[in-house]
């Protein structure tokens, strides 16, 4: 396995409140990594560091290194970085536009004007997010008319449309019912053939089902990270065991 993103001595504070402590972590290419841990332990904060979403938060101070394919992300262009490291949020957030225009938005913003090319990107991205068959006959209808689960797959398709390398997912199923959740989970397992996926989840069964590697965080520290099967069957740290057996959190 090859490391695609890594952190070294990563510390982060919001104002005077330190939230991440000395995180040393490597994310492996074309695999699914789940970040788990009790509420407030810093999972989303760590995820947001990976495409510099925390830059948008005033008073957020980061020290240490984060590298993406060997390059320091703190000195790279954040717009290009976010194209390569896309993000899917907790609540589906389609634009109030047609299904087609949601997907074409990113490529157009990057200068693509050719209709045939855009048509092909829209089809490929929707197929990649396993949504094409459900929407191919209504591409020019509003995305807001889709169900919650369809909207979340649309948001994943919108991320795929700009040809990312890594997809960050922050609790992507927390607003969805079990059937829609199962579809997204299957999609995540499919996506790792072509992409690196990092997912924050509160749902330990979900982490166990979809991820190859799991990192357990507690109070801003990465307590333990290992193969998901090891974390859930034979964790090294007692704290991890207590968390995964439901004794706290
Ligand atoms: N924009 C912000 N400004 C100030 N503090 C923040 C901000 N975002 C998060 N925090 C604080 O940082 C800590 C970690 O939050 P974070 O959202 O990363 O945790 P989490 O593990 O993802 O939690 P949850 O599982 O509840 O989403 C919390 O104490 C939170 O209140």
TrEMBL record:
All copies of domain ABC transporter, residue ranges: 5-244
An example Gene Ontology molecular-function term: ATP binding
One record GO biological process: phosphate ion transmembrane transport
Keyword Transport recorded: yes
Coiled-coil ranges per UniProt: none
Listed InterPro entries: AAA+_ATPase, ABC_transporter-like_ATP-bd, ABC_transporter-like_CS, P-loop_NTPase, PstB-like
PANTHER family in the record: ABC TRANSPORTER I FAMILY MEMBER 17
Protein name as annotated: Phosphate ABC transporter, ATPase subunit
């Amino acid at each position: 396995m090859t490391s695609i993103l890594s952190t070294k001595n990563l510390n982060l504070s919001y104002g005077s409140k330190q939230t991440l402590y000395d995180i040393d972590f490597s994310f492996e290419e074309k695999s699914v990594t789940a970040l788990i841990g009790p509420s407030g332990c810093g999972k989303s904060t760590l995820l947001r560091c990976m495409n510099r979403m925390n830059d948008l938060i005033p008073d957020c101070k980061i020290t240490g290194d984060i590298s993406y394919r060997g390059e320091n992300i703190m000195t790279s262009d954040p717009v290009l970085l976010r194209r390569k490291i896309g993000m899917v949020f907790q609540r589906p957030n389609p634009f109030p536009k047609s299904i087609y225009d949601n997907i074409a938005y990113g490529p157009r913003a990057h200068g693509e004007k050719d209709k045939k090319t855009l048509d092909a990107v829209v089809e490929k991205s929707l197929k990649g997010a396993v949504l094409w068959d459900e929407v191919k006959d209504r591409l020019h209808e509003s995305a807001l008319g889709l169900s919650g689960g369809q909207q979340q797959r649309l948001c994943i398709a919108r991320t795929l449309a700009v040809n990312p390398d890594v997809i960050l997912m922050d609790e992507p199923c927390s607003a969805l019912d079990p059937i829609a959740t199962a579809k997204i989970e299957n999609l995540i397992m499919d996506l790792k053939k072509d992409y690196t996926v990092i997912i924050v989840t509160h749902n330990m069964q979900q982490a166990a089902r979809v991820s190859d590697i799991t990192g357990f965080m507690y109070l801003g520290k990465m307590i333990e990270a290992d193969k998901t099967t090891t974390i859930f069957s034979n964790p090294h740290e007692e704290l991890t065991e207590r968390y995964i057996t439901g004794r706290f959190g």
